[in-house]
Design goal:
Elements lengths: L4 E7 L16 E2 L2 E2 L1 H9 L5 E6 L4 H7 L4 E4 L6 H6 L2 H4 L5 E6 L7 H14 L3 E7 L8 E4 L5 E5 L6 H4 L3 E10 H8 L15 H8 L4 E5 L12 H21 L3 E2 L6 E2 L4 E2 L4 E2 L4 E3 L3 E2 L4 E2 L4 E3 L2 E2 L4 E2 L3 E3 L2 E2 L4 E2 L4 E3 L3 E2 L4 E4 L2 E7 L4 E4 L2 E7 L4 E2 L4 E3 L9 E3 L4 E2 L4 E3 L3 E2 L4 E2 L4 E2 L8 E3 L4 E2 L6
Parallel strand pairs: 1-4, 1-6, 4-5, 7-11, 12-15, 13-16, 14-17, 15-18, 16-19, 17-20, 18-21, 19-22, 20-23, 21-24, 22-25, 23-26, 24-27, 25-28, 26-28, 27-29, 28-30, 29-31, 30-33, 31-34, 32-35, 33-36, 34-37, 35-38, 37-39
Antiparallel strand pairs: 2-3, 6-10, 7-10, 8-9, 39-40
This protein binds uridine-diphosphate-N-acetylglucosamine and calcium ion.
Length: 451
């Protein structure tokens, strides 16, 4: 039987270097609060329990965690070792192993956490930890190894000798311990170091002194160990995460013209042979079908696009665009709008909670709010659906093949029958029967004058 496993996430740091009112682990990163990544990594191990060590005023963090983990409060921030000590009362009976993750290391991937656990199973020993060789080890704990390759100790940057500072293998902040050994070592911690803190990293050397063995698994991808302590590192983590997601989409057959300027959420799906230009954001649960073309400056948030959809410099949120539809430039499609197949929404047009059935066109600067448009409707330039009377929103219904002349206003709620024609510049205040033509302000049935 597999040994029992408990996970602990450290998230009580004040994040002083972030200079923020928001707790560090709640800062958004790649579309999710930073702590999400540690939670996902812990969840990937399927442990019996996940504890999150939080600071004294961390209601927001506790609220965010919900029932995904058990919060344990660290009243005073006395170091990473002290943080883990707060969980010890819950650990004693659990036996097995403990995995410790830092809430500010969001680039470590679930498969790496799983690899560390397997590495520990294979290597044996009291503990195993993750390390990497980095170009700039400044600020990180250095891994001091024995000649046989096992770990001797972790020396924090501020406590390191010149010789130790030259080591470029750093501590990622991800460990697996035999529970009993961790508890024993935590009991011996002292704060006799540069920061006057109880370092979790000191447990390593204690275990070695007791005759134990600790192994370090070095990850080849040094970006996995980036710690986020300030806004610069936050931006760097954001950049790296995006790049990682984009590379995945590239392998799946998506073209990015300027990958460095594109933002893609973890949940976004993109169909093969789609082309994404520069300065594009694909956020939330955005789904693109095959062969879509997303023009520069577009911002899509939980947008669902069918196949062959073209979006030019537009903003689309919580809306659906059917196959072969196109939008923009500068369209704003929002609030649960739905375009069926072959719909054209052109320059400067806004849609809110609007349904346009297949073949309909709204080519130039119109506002269509709270309305259902049938098939093959033509919305002339500058039409406005006046859906709000100052108190309530009203819904309008436009039949198939209706022709709305340029610059007409529809004072909702109105129903316009199939094939009706609204003359340019009309203000429609009443329903229009099927096939009729209305004109004027207010719009009245069109009667041909005798000459
Ligand atoms: C720590 C490691 C260092 C490693 C680096 C990797 C120690 C002593 N040092 O340094 O070896 O290279 O991470 O990024 O562990 N925290 C608490 N309570 C505390 C202090 C910290 O919960 O009292 C949490 C923080 O919220 C953070 C994590 O522990 O998520 C790490 O703390 P931090 O102060 O950022 O440690 P580093 O100096 O980065
Ligand atoms: Ca850190």
């Amino acid at each position: 039987m597999a040994q029992s496993l408990t996970a602990i996430i450290l998230a009580a740091g004040e994040g002083t270097r972030m200079n923020s009112k928001l707790p560090k682990v709640l800062h958004p990163l790649g579309g999710q609060p930073m702590i999400d990544y540690a939670l996902e990594n812990a969840e990937a191990l399927n442990p019996q329990k996940i504890y999150v060590v939080v600071g004294a005023h961390a209601e927001e963090v506790i609220g965010y965690i919900g029932d995904r983990a058990i919060p344990v409060v660290q009243k005073q921030r006395l170091g990473t070792g002290h943080a883990v000590q707060q969980v010890v009362p819950f650990l004693k009976k659990s036996g097995g192993n403990v995995v410790i993750l830092y809430g500010d290391a969001p680039l470590t991937q679930p498969q790496t956490v799983q690899a560390l656990r397997q590495f520990h199973q294979v290597q044996g020993g009291e503990a195993a930890l993750l390390s990497a060789r980095v170009a700039d080890p400044f600020g990180y704990g250095r891994i001091v190894r024995h000649e046989d390759g096992t770990v001797n100790s972790i020396v924090e940057h501020k406590d390191a000798s010149e010789e130790e500072l030259a080591i470029n293998e750093i501590n990622a902040g991800l460990y697996i311990f035999k529970t009993a050994k961790l508890v024993e070592a935590l009991g011996k911690l002292k704060a006799n170091n540069a920061k006057k803190e109880y370092y979790l990293t000191d447990t390593i050397h204690y275990l070695i002194n007791q005759g134990g063995k600790v192994h370090a698994l070095m990850v080849p991808d040094a970006t996995e160990v980036l710690g986020v302590n300030d806004r610069e590192q936050l931006a760097e983590a954001h950049r790296l995460l995006n790049l990682r997601r984009i590379e995945e989409h590239q392998r799946e057959g998506v073209t990015f013209l300027h990958p460095g300027s594109v933002e893609v959420s973890a949940q976004t799906l993109i169909g093969k042979d789609s082309i994404i230009e520069g300065n594009v954001q694909l956020l939330g649960r955005t789904v693109l079908g095959e062969n879509c073309h997303i023009g520069s400056g577009s911002h899509l948030n939980s947008a669902k696009l069918g196949k062959n959809v073209v979006v030019r410099s537009s903003r689309i949120s919580e809306s659906t665009l059917g196959d072969n539809s196109d939008a923009g430039p500068f369209a704003h499609i929002r609030g649960g709008s739905v375009l069926d197949k072959n719909v054209h929404v052109g320059t400067g047009t806004e849609l809110k909670n609007a349904h346009l059935a297949s073949g309909s066109k709204a080519g130039h600067f119109s506002y269509i709010g709270d309305a259902h448009l049938g098939k093959d409707v033509n919305v002339g330039a500058g039409c406005v659906f006046a859906n709000y009377d100052g108190k309530n929103k009203h819904h309008s219904k436009i039949g198939d093949k209706v022709f709305l002349g340029s610059n007409s206003t529809l004072v909702a709620p109105v129903v316009i029958g199939k094939g009706a024609v609204i003359g340019a510049g009309s203000v429609v205040t009443k329903d229009v029967p099927t096939g009729k033509t209305v004109v004027g302000v207010p719009a009245k049935p069109f009667v041909k004058k005798r000459s």
